UniProtKB/TrEMBL annotation:
Cytidyltransferase-like domain ranges (all copies): 5-123
Protein name: Glycerol-3-phosphate cytidylyltransferase
Whole-protein coverage range: 2 to 130 of 169
Keywords, in A-Z order: Nucleotidyltransferase, Transferase
Gene Ontology MF terms in the entry: glycerol-3-phosphate cytidylyltransferase activity
Keyword Nucleotidyltransferase recorded: yes
UniProt source species: Pseudogemmobacter humi
Presence of the UniProt keyword Transferase in the record: yes
EC code(s) of this entry: 2.7.7.39
Enzyme class, broadest EC rank: transferase
Amino acid sequence: TRKVITYGTFDLFHIGHIRLLERLAELGDHLTVCVSTDEFNAVKGKTAVMSWEQRAALVGACRYVDQVLPEKGWGQKREDIIREKIDVFAMGDDWEGRFDDLKDLCEVVYLPRTKDVSSTSLKTAIREM
Ligand code: C2G
């Protein structure tokens, strides 16, 4: 089994998230998504509209996703990759290069972001309705 992992907030689950997860699922046989907790979002300086429970449930309902775990801090990636026996770590390319230190543990892949959509742009669009 070729296992893939990714991390993120996944607020207001949108097409950019789906297009990323779809491509990640094609990189292997099993996809784990670690969804940032509300507490870790505060560390990241982000406030999600949806609770961790709702964000995790939406990601978990996605056909491309096999497992959802909490992301509680910046430092858990190495232990996650070792414990879950991950082969590929992948993120959108806004993170290009930022996690190359994981290359001793697994493949590290950055995929192009989907243009013109983000949780922030959705919030703005709704506010202007
Ligand atoms: N993404 C994308 N296209 C978009 C928006 C997001 O491909 N239009 C990708 C991002 O590149 C990221 C994932 O979707 O890989 C989740 O995005 P966020 O929820 O914004 O995650 P982020 O806050 O970047 O958290 O430890 C890593 C962090 O938790 C990443």
